[in-house]
Amino acid sequence: MRFDPDDLSQVWVRNHPDPDGGFVRAAWTHQAMVSAPFADFTWRHARQATASTGQPVDETAIARTLDKLLTRAGAGPDRDR
C-alpha cells in the first residue's frame, strides 16, 4: 500500500493480478463528504473535536467534523476578529 501523507482520502494498493505489479487507487468511503485533502494530524483533530461533543465517535461523524473544519479553514480568517 502507498499513500500521500498530505492526502489520506485515498491510497494505492498493489494490483496482484497485474504482472507488472502496478497499483490501483482506492478512495476513502467518505471522500464525497469531505471538501479537501487532509493529513493525519487533521483527522486526529477532527476525531478529538467529535469526541468532545459527546456524539458517537464513528468514521461518519468524524468525516462531518473534518469537512466543517476544512471548509472553515478554506474560507480564511474571520474578518470580524
Describe the structure.
By secondary structure, the chain is α+β, with helices and mostly antiparallel strands. 36% of the residues lie in helices and 20% in strands. It contains 2 helices and 3 strands. A 3-stranded antiparallel beta sheet has the order 1-2-3, with no helix packed on it. β2 and β3 (23-27) form a beta hairpin. α1 (40-52) packs across α2 (59-74). It is elongated and about 55 Å long. The relative contact order is 0.16. The mean pLDDT is 88.
Strand content: 15-25%
Head-to-tail CA distance between termini: 44 Å
Rounded to an integer in angstroms, the radius of gyration calculated over CA atoms is 16 Å
Number of E-state strands? 3
Series of secondary-structure elements, N-terminal to C-terminal: EEEHH
Rounded mean pLDDT score: 88
Content-based structural category:
alpha+beta
**Widest sheet: strand ordering:** 1-2-3
Q: What are the segments in which pLDDT stays under 50 over at least 5 consecutive residues?
A: none
Helix content: 25-40%
Give the biggest sheet: 3 strands, antiparallel
The number of helical segments is: 2
- From the spread of the alpha carbons, the general shape counts as elongated
